[in-house]
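RESIDUES AND SHAPES:
===
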Amino acid sequence: IRKLQAVDTLGSATVICTDKTGTLTTNQMTAQKIYADKKVINVTGVGYEPKGNFEHENTPINLKENEVFTQFFHTAVLCNDARLRRREVEETFRWEIQGDPTEGALIVAAEKAGYEKDIIEEKFPRVDEIPFNSKTRYMVTFNKTSQTQITAYCKGAPETILNMCTQIQQNGKIENLTQQTKDQILSNNYEMANQALRVLAFAYKNIEEENLEDFKEKIQKTNPQLVFVGLIGLIDPPREEAKQA
């Protein structure tokens, strides 16, 4: 500091603008909330280590026994290009994401629930995809789920995905998506967004393998009549030292 005037100016500053990602935050997106099957689930654990629990109304819940959450986490890991890897650094293990941090957070959440991406991908291999772009605001992968059937797994902005759906999977079955249910989903979306969470929606559709090309064209031009599964809220947690700084 060479000029006293600079000190005086700095002393009168009331706002400091700083980079957020990786500076104030850890740059490790983490899933915090899930809304599916009419339940709001809190997810514990921070960062990329797949260690944490799922709680519904402050009670631990096993999501592996629920068909809706099985479909939810299959969508999370199959409609996803990231990879979670454990790397040894100076005799300690560190969890790292190869790819997009947001997609990485989805894989971590799935692994916490017992759904391992590599195993699920081997069982349901990808045969085609529609990459995410900022105009459509969604991504779709097509995975072979039986001898003759392909499942389209879709993730994207909640309003966009919801407008592509005519049904919802809940209560152990597939039901028509009513306006009341849509309003309930949007209400949970806004609540998550107001908690500074980045929200993504999941949906899917089973199609015959021979109809794949027709469906790809349909999904980009008309309502593809997907089945809505749920929402997930993610946050890039602040660094512990950020508040002190």
